[in-house]
Amino acid sequence: MNTEYLAKFYKKTYTEKIDALVKAELLTELQADNLKNEGVDLGQDIGEHMIENYIENYSLPLGVAMNFLIDNQETVVPMAIEEPSVIAAASFAAKIIGSAGGFTTVVSERMMIGQVTLKDVADPSTAIKKIKNSRQEILDRANEAHPSIVKRGGGAKDLSVRLLESDPSENIPSFLVVHLHIDTQEAMGANIVNTMMEGIAPYIEELTGGTALLRILSNYATECTATATCTIPSYKLKTTNFSGEEVRDRIVEAAQVAWVDPYRAVTHNKGIMNGVDAVVVASGNDWRAIEAGIHAYAARSGQYRALSKWHTNEKGDLVGTLTLPLPIGTVGGSISIHPAAKLSRTLLQEPDAKRLESILVSVGLAQNFAAIRALVTDGIQKGHMGLHARSLAISAGAKGAQVEKIAEALKKAPHMNLQTAKDYLSKL
Question: Are strands 225-232 and 62-70 parallel, antiparallel or unpaired?
Fold first, then answer.
């Protein structure tokens, strides 16, 4: 990738942006022509086969975040999102972090978890012993249920058992849960895991004398995590009104608030997910599964807390760390059939699943840095209102060059609202 052609990308026209991606060797001429002329929205023939009762597509803007240096590899990140300022904030943060060495990531082994939940187990202790003694037989039966993933090097690798104690105060009985730990390779793996759980359930019922109530994957992917770290010298944090050390300390303090206060933690983590979800959607993955698992991970201590941590190292640098469970895939589902997902994979330089995890967690950390930095310096509204002005201009009916003219006027107006935008448009 030749990033010199991507400089000041945000100032280019639409055609210039596409041409720049070609010159940067991220798109071919043919892909660029298709993008300009045909776009990447779903055709009716594909949409009708993806969901039930299809009537039309609901589109989101697809943009690219710049300046990301992830494990010493320059990366342009596609993001599908409707919220203004997210892509700009990610690019801004990535530029600062990139100038300080970029993001360093560590990705765990990619293990998905499947569950068979049993009810009416008369003797849980004996049942647990039988399950553990039959570990290999259970794993073999799971792998026989989906042999193709085994041929690719994946499959069921381990087993564990959990007893969910009864709660008489809520009239809830005890349940016995069998976990399989499954390597799904490049797939997110929901169908693989579910097939295996259904395959082993009758045998587990036979072993325990219980009844299988649930046979399905867990979206709480605690064995499929990625961690991103960045280190920023304090002098790079200086603003017009604050020294670098002041900004550093205020970021650390803001992160501490989000660690102890769930009300702040939710908003803190929502900012992280602005970036993560946008890339998950662009890549064709299941953002509902990612959201559910990540927010559960934020509450793993028993209290909902900030997902990221920021501290000062011995050199006085600001250090940020973010760990997320990321059960994503690079094959399967809509990934291989949605035109926008295919384009996103091309722009990301065809990453494998672990690389995509590294990108996602880095974008989340960048988004978090940008949000906290804005909050503790000029306030979040300065950037938001400029982009909000454009949205108002468009809502008022502005088109083309009118949008920027009205947006600039709205920024100076005593009341930035839709009626004011309409008034300016009528004058134009």
Answer: unpaired
Q: What is the pLDDT of residue 407?
A: 84
Q: What is the DSSP string of 315-348?
A: TS-EEEEEEEE----SBSTTTTT-HHHHHHHHHT
Backbone phi, then psi, for 311, in 5-degree steps?
Answer: -150, 170
Token pair in block for residue 370:
């940008």
| Cα distance between residue 208 and residue 210, in whole Å | 5
286 assigned to active site: yes
pLDDT value of position 369: 98
Q: Which of 83, 205, 249, 378 is catalytic?
A: 83
Contacts of 272 (CB under 8 A, 6+ apart): 307, 308, 322, 364, 365, 367, 368
For residue 385, the model assigns a pLDDT of 66
Average pLDDT over residues 99-120: 97
Edge-first strand listing for the sheet containing 111-119? 155-164, 175-183, 111-119, 211-218
Q: Which of 236, 270, 388, 422 is catalytic?
A: 270
d(CA 52, CA 219): 23
Angle between helices 339-347 and 262-282 (to 10 degrees): 100
Question: Angle, to 10 degrees, between the axis of helix 14-23 and the axis of helix 29-37?
Answer: 160
The reply to whether 95 belongs to the active site is no
Whether residue 379 has pLDDT greater than 80: no
Percent of the chain with pLDDT over 90: 81
Question: Is it the case that residue 428 has pLDDT exceeding 90?
Answer: no
How does strand 73-80 pair with strand 104-107?
unpaired
> Is 83 tagged catalytic?
yes
Distance CA 253, CA 379 (A): 15
Q: Catalytic: which of 277, 286, 317, 357?
A: 286
Please indicate whether residue 270 is annotated as part of the active site.
yes
**Amino acid sitting at position 83:** E
Cα 217 to chain centroid distance, Å, stands at 19
**pLDDT tens digit sequence for 46-77:** 899 889 999 999 999 999 999 999 999 999 99
Decide: 331 and 186 in contact? Cβ < 8 Å.
Answer: yes
pTM over 0.85: yes
Residue 123: phi and psi, rounded to 5, are -130, 85
Spatial separation of the C-alpha atoms in residues 55 and 42, rounded to whole Å: 12
